[in-house]
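pls design
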């Protein structure tokens, strides 16, 4: 049976954050809020949890998971960030953007696009997500919580618990965070290229 935590959206309770991070460290999958939609997340190095998330969402082998990081310094461990990209990330994050960057050797090979050696990173502007990341000390491997056959992400934590009981280990109720996806920006060629327009303001790029 999945656990269910109600965490304050602006002042996350330390006790519950620590318990949620223990779930991640012990191989669990969590449903948690971000600044654009709810997401599924697990430990970056946990292959079994990754496969479970693929089953939940019925994802193929080419699906790109995102590394959700606490700040630009952490993102720089896992991605190749030059001066221009660094300035852009500092300007736009935390915020509802996914940036595609060249992956470093710290990223597990199964998460990297085989041909381009690229990975997506996120630094969300959400107090619960940031509290989880700071407590964990590592990125959370994530994908938007959109169930098979649905066009939009799930928005009600109680519905997530009903639909995913026994499939995820924890559902965090952090309030409504919307359904609009992130703006995806490719930074691998130097100039930012918007791959998908979403919640993040493209005029800020």
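designed seq:
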């Amino acid at each position: 049976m999945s656990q269910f935590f109600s965490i304050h959206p602006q002042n996350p309770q330390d006790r519950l954050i620590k318990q949620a991070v223990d779930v991640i460290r012990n191989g669990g999958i969590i449903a948690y809020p971000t600044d654009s939609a709810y997401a599924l997340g697990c430990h970056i190095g946990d292959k079994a949890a990754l496969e479970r998330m693929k089953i939940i969402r019925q994802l193929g082998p080419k699906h790109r998971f995102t590394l959700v990081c606490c700040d630009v310094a952490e993102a720089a461990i896992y991605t190749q960030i030059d001066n221009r990209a660094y300035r852009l990330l500092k300007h736009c994050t935390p915020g509802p953007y996914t940036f595609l960057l060249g992956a470093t050797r710290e990223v597990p090979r199964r998460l990297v696009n085989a041909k381009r050696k690229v990975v997506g990173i996120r630094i969300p502007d959400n107090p619960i997500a940031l509290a989880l990341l700071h407590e964990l000390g590592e990125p959370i491997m994530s994908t938007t919580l959109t169930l098979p056959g649905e066009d939009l992400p799930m928005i009600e934590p109680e519905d997530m618990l009903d639909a995913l009981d026994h499939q995820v280990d924890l559902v965090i109720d952090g309030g409504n965070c919307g359904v609009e996806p992130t703006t995806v920006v490719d930074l691998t060629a130097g100039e930012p290229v918007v791959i998908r327009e979403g919640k993040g303001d493209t005029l800020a790029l």
